[in-house]
Amino acid sequence: MAEHRMMQRSALLDAARSLLSEGGTEALTFPALAERTGLARSSVYEYFRSRAAVVEELCAVDFPVWAAEVENAMAGADTAEGKVEAYVRQQLELVGDRRHRAVVAISASELDAGAREKIRAAHGGLITMIGDALRELGHEQPRLAAMMLQGVVDAAVRRMELGGAAEEPGVITEAAVAMALRGVRG
Predict the structure, then answer these.
(1) What is the SS3 assignment for 186?
(2) Which of 50, 57, 75, 98 has a CA that sits 20 to 30 A from residue 64's CA?
(3) Is pTM, for the whole model, over 0.85?
(4) Which H or E run includes 167?
């Protein structure tokens, strides 16, 4: 019985990833989850109390995997500057990943304060991850610099999320890397 419940929960999370990837937070509804998994709508409520709970669980499951991919990319760089570049590039590469949609969905207004705090704490792990490289580059306040750097990444992600109305993802990535490494100098 426990294994069946675990499989159902996993199927619901996979369906949620697909829905978020296809249509953003608006597409993530309990009727849609039920339809994708073949469960009755009432059964979905046995696993999750709200859409926010689904998103929170996705972040708890997917964010560590996503963060590990960023960390692995950084580990492959030999210099502090290379680590900063890998930090930016890897996050932007992950924008198309279905798991990333869950992370983007955290801004949904229906998330309660507890869920937002858990997600903010997980996101803080990214900030901590880049701190040593920024310190090595001479930043006296590496945490502040890391938050500003993450702001560049977040802005690039939002620009990519615009889709056809914006620049190509590669152009956005190169602009974000240039901004991270050289600031506003051309």
Answers:
(1) coil
(2) 50
(3) no
(4) none
Residue-by-residue pLDDT tens, the chain, 186 positions: 889 889 999 999 999 988 887 877 788 899 999 999 999 999 999 999 988 888 888 888 888 888 899 999 999 999 999 999 999 999 999 887 766 666 565 555 456 676 677 777 777 888 899 999 999 999 999 999 999 999 999 899 888 877 666 688 899 999 999 999 998 776
Give the chain's radius of gyration (CA, Å): 18
End-to-end CA distance of the chain: 61
Question: Rounded to the nearest 5 degrees, what angle is found at the Cα of 36, between the Cα atoms of 26 and 46?
Answer: 85
| DSSP symbol at 183 | T
* String of DSSP letters for 106-135: GG-TTS-HHHHHHHHHHHHHHHHHHHHHHH
The CA distance from 83 to 90, in Å, is: 10
| 46, two tokens | 């046995």
C-alpha 133/C-alpha 74 separation (Å) is: 9
Ramachandran region of residue 77, left (φ > 0), alpha (ψ -120 to 50) or beta? beta
Task: Give the Cα separation of 72 and 108 in Å (integer).
Answer: 29
- DSSP letter string, 17-54: HHHHHHH-GGG--HHHHHHHHT--HHHHHHH-SSHHHH
